[in-house]
Design goal:
Elements lengths: L18 H20 L12 E5 L3 E7 L8 E6 L2 E8 L16 E8 L10 E5 L2 E7 L19
Antiparallel strand pairs: 1-2, 2-7, 3-4, 4-5, 6-7
Length: 156
């Protein structure tokens, strides 16, 4: 009979419980389980890449992990405040028999609804080192000078 092994924390880390980290781990495990059970059929053949959404004072920044995806194989669409990143990670030609695959290929799609209005004409997107970075300026972040007039002016 084997006994469970108790892991001790690293000497620099105090022995603390991190409930949110455990919830994130559980969520990741459930997602992997769901993907393995239903596969691509639940998302019409598209997989969802990992992404971070950051809000700054002036804009939203969305960073999507797309290693191996070429710029011409990515579509970025903005409708109102909903951002959709879609495309395809094309499978490369191989010689020999593929024995195991853990990397995803095929259609992908990432959707996010941003909490505020966006200046659509100023959105910028760039792809470098497998990270698609989309900068979406907030609509209310531009300051402008407002002319103050006398109450009697302009009323005629």
């Amino acid at each position: 009979m084997t006994l469970p092994v108790r892991r001790t924390p690293a000497p620099t880390q105090p022995d603390r419980w991190h409930p949110f980290r455990e919830l994130e781990d559980l969520y990741s495990q459930m997602d992997r389980l769901w993907q393995s059970v239903v596969g691509a059929s639940a998302t019409d053949g598209a997989w969802m890449p990992s992404a971070d959404v950051t809000e700054t004072k002036d804009d939203y920044v969305v960073e999507v992990e797309l290693p191996g995806v070429r710029r011409e194989d990515v579509d970025v669409e903005l409708t109102g405040n909903e951002l959709v990143v879609s495309g395809e990670l094309k499978e490369r030609k191989r010689e020999g028999m593929l024995r195991r695959r853990t990397r995803r290929v095929g259609q992908f799609e990432y959707r996010v609804t941003l909490p505020g209005e966006i200046r659509e004409n100023d959105v910028k997107a760039s792809l470098a080192q497998g990270i698609l970075t989309i900068q979406l300026p907030k609509a209310g972040s531009q300051s402008r000078k407002i002319k103050v007039i006398e109450a009697g002016e302009g009323s005629s």
